[in-house]
Structure formats: structure tokens, C-alpha cells
Amino acid sequence: MDILVTGGTGFIGSGLVEQLADNGHRILVVSRSTTAGPPGVEYVSSVGDVPLDRDFDAFINLAGESIAASKWSESRRQVLFSSRVALTGQLFELAERLPRAPRVLLNASAIGFYGSHDDTPLDEEAGFNECFSHRLCDSWEQEAARFEPLGTRVCRLRIGIVLGAGGGALTELSRSNAVGISGWMGSGSQYMSWVHLEDVHRAMHFLLEKDALSGAVNLTAPEPQTAREFARVLASVRGLPLQLPVPGFMVRLLFGEMGRELLLEGQRVIPAKLQQAGFRFRYPGLSEALADIFRA
Q1: What is the dihedral of CA 174, 279, 135, 87, to 10 degrees?
Q2: Contact yes or no for 222/270 (Cβ under 8 A)
Q3: Using CA atoms, how far apart are residues 222 and 278, in angstroms rounded to an integer?
Q4: What is the per-residue pLDDT for 295?
Q5: Is the terminal CB of the chain with fewer CB neighbours within 10 Å at N or C?
Q6: In terms of Cα–Cα distance, which of 194, 282, 201, 260 is closest to 231?
Q7: Which residues contact 66 (CB under 8 A, 6 or more apart)?
Q8: DSSP code string of the chain
């Protein structure tokens, strides 16, 4: 396959690009970081630099500024929208100008699409509750859906909390663990729908080839955990005592709306489409996932 990847130098994208190249695919990465990569990988710094005579089989769109890097000021909200929605629009305009549109688009989204929920399991047909995270993900997904009239199969990947070495959610959690803090945020009853980075990569390979799958696809492990249980398992794997929780009012004071939506609220997301299509998770359970990551 000839594949264009945005966000190909990030936490998820860098490993994916290397694997795709190792499997013989020809890769063009759109990234502000254009350092040399593995054989078979080319880099350009913007969508406007993509050659218009290139015939791509797939687009994989992973670009987007970190949603949890800072409080959601008005300027930060604009950055989050632009880095997702506006860039996806640029990809659509590129697809219209190429010799043919890509056969498939894997477009990142997030489980924040569903907004805050209780312990009700949420498959891809579940409804949403209004919040900033939903509006951001919904706008992102609607922009990706513009590819469909071009004949492109679009998979909107509602990605959970990605766990892996060297980045993602565990980087911040490990910093807390390093100073002996291993509790949870707020009540601890909110669900954390997580997924091992290796299974994210494996699912993307699966979706590139699975022509029957399209639309929303939940990309989370099949066994989400409450924040309290997540903290217990993480402390156990790290060999740390489980500490008292961080009160919700402190989280709201420090992080505002971002802290409330991302740390104090949650959703119990189930990867129904992937499982029904025959995808097997290598790390369905949290204990084995964390043990693998911290063994690496």
C-alpha cells in the first residue's frame, strides 16, 4: 500500500509508521518534524507539500495537539479544533486534487465523543452527553465523513486512554508514582477505558484490510476499569502502596473544565465492532497490559 500518515512522529504514529514500513508499505508522513526515518518512509512538513501525482491507497490521520496538556482557555480550544478539524479539512481538499481519493481513511477521534456517562457499557451505537470533548470529537468526525462521497471507506477511531512505554497517559501517572502518589482522582467510580499501544497498532493494521468495517469504531480494550481499580492495579504492578485519592475540588481548581471532563468523569466503552469482526486483543486485561509495559 501507498499510505499517507499525519501525526506519524507522535506517540501512536511513530511506532505505527515503522511497522507499516517494515511490512513493505510505502509511507509519506506529514509532520513538522521531518527527521530521517526507516527505509520506505518519506517526510513532508505540511499537507500542501504532498505531491499531487501520488496515488495513495490509504490516509491515516492521527494529528492533533494534546487535549490534556493545559487548561482549556479560549485560545487553547481554538488550537485543539484547528489541529484536528482544520487539518482534516486540508486532507479532504488534497484527496479531491489527487488522481483518485484514498480507498480508506483511518481518522483518529476519541472516546470523549460520548461525554460523561455512568457505568453503562457504550458500544458504537450509544448516545452522547453534551460537553466540550464531544463537540471537538463530533466536529472532527463530521469533517472525516466528507471523504465518503469520494468513495473512501472511513473509519472514525474513538480511541481510549492509550497505555505504552515512553509517552501517553502513563508518563504522567509514572511521574506521580515516582514520588509515591498512587491514588485516584475524585470518587474513583468513573470508568477509564484504556488500551495498550500495541493493540492500537494491531487494530489499525486490521482496519486497513477489513473492507466490511466503516463508521465509528471504538478502539479500547474490552475490560475498562474504574479509576479506583486502575490505581490499585497500577500501584500493584509498580510495587507501591495505594494512597488516598486526590479530592475532586482540587482537580477542578487546578485544571478547570479539562480536569473535570478528563479526570473526574468517564465512560465505559466497549469495542463491539472490532470484537464482532474477529479482532483479538493481545492485552484485554489491565494487569497483563501494565506488566508488559513496565517490563519493557
Answers
A1: 90
A2: yes
A3: 13
A4: 86
A5: C
A6: 194
A7: none
A8: -EEEEESTTSTTHHHHHHHHHHTT-EEEEE-S-----STTEEEESSGGGS-TT---SEEEE-----TTSS---HHHHHHHHIIIIIHHHHHHHHHHHSSS--SEEEEEEEGGGG-S--S-EE-TT-----SHHHHHHHHHHHHHHTTGGGT-EEEEEEE-EEEETTEEHHHHHHHHHHTT----BTTS-SEE-EEEHHHHHHHHHHHHH-TT--EEEEES-S--EEHHHHHHHHHHHHT----PPBPHHHHHHHHHHHHIIIII---EE--HHHHHTT---S--SHHHHHHHHHH-
Q: What span, in angstroms and rounded, lies between the C-alpha atoms of 169 and 156?
A: 21
| Per-residue pLDDT tens digits for 114-127 | 999 999 999 999 99
- pLDDT of 179: 46
Whole-number mean pLDDT of the chain? 92
User: CB atoms < 10 A from the CB of 55, how many?
Assistant: 9
Which three three-digit cell numbers place residue 46? 505540511
Q: How far is CA 56 from CA 3, 21, 118, 208, 267, in A?
A: 6, 15, 42, 13, 36
Residue with cell 482544520: 86
Residue with cell 452522547: 128
pTM of the model: 0.94
Fill in the amino acid letter for 39: P
For residue 261, what is its C-alpha cell? 471532563
